[in-house]
What does this fold into?
Amino acid sequence: MIQRIQSVYLIIVALLGGVLPFFFNLWVNVDGGEVFASNEMLISITFYASAVLAIWSMVSFKNRKNQFVINRLNMILNVFLLGFFVYRSLNLSGETLVSEKGIGMLIPVFSIVFLVLANKAIKKDEDLVKSVDRLR
It folds into this structure.
């Protein structure tokens, strides 16, 4: 159901997790080499898993409770990914010389925000359905 706002949020999360990390660098090494998600296998698998969970949540629109739980799992996955990026940025070698954090490190933050917005919309739909069922 693409006409629902949570579907739009979940499409954005799928694009954030499945496409953007491979175009925006995550960090720059001391030698000047940019590190993308495609360079790190674990990070790319995590981003792909986030995108797959968002798509799975979007296609399971008939079961809103299941959709809510899938989004929560996706949020936990993005929090772990964000924690890894914070750990990596604090331990980035060459901190006194040169080190740049890339814009790709913010992708899990944006994904979490859109997942929270999607969960709020799902909760709103669930409350609407419950109120209509009460009237019958």
The beta strands are 27-28, 34-35, 100-101. The chain has four helices and three strands.
